[in-house]
Specification:
With 97 residues, the protein is an all-alpha fold. It contains 4 helices and no strands. Helix 1 packs antiparallel against helix 4 and helix 3 packs across helix 4.
């Protein structure tokens, strides 16, 4: 219920605001650009994956699937975002999500 009520919307916002590797933030037509990555991310969160695992997934998406190549700045951003995602999910579950 949490996912349909608020989880998907919140994760979409987090990915657009704090990840956005292709720079489409603010483009209304691209609001769902990262939706295909939401299910694998929330699955990892539900399985209590480590921040390192989540960051590795985000990095693999950027470097391999999107073809953006390796970037130390992107890896650092992905590590910070992975921690943020774990915290966001833990908070949502603690609130009864």
């Amino acid at each position: 219920m949490w996912w349909k009520r608020s989880g998907a919307r919140e994760l979409r916002r987090l990915l657009m605001d704090e990840w956005d590797p292709i720079g489409v933030r603010g483009v209304p037509e691209a609001a769902d650009e990262y939706d295909g990555y939401m299910s694998p991310i929330v699955s990892r969160l539900r399985e209590d994956a480590s921040a390192e695992d989540i960051a590795a997934f985000l990095t693999e998406v950027e470097e391999e699937r999107m073809g953006l190549g390796a970037s130390a700045a992107a890896r650092s951003r992905n590590e910070a975002l992975a921690e943020r995602l774990r915290s966001w999910y833990a908070d949502a579950m603690a609130e009864g999500g």
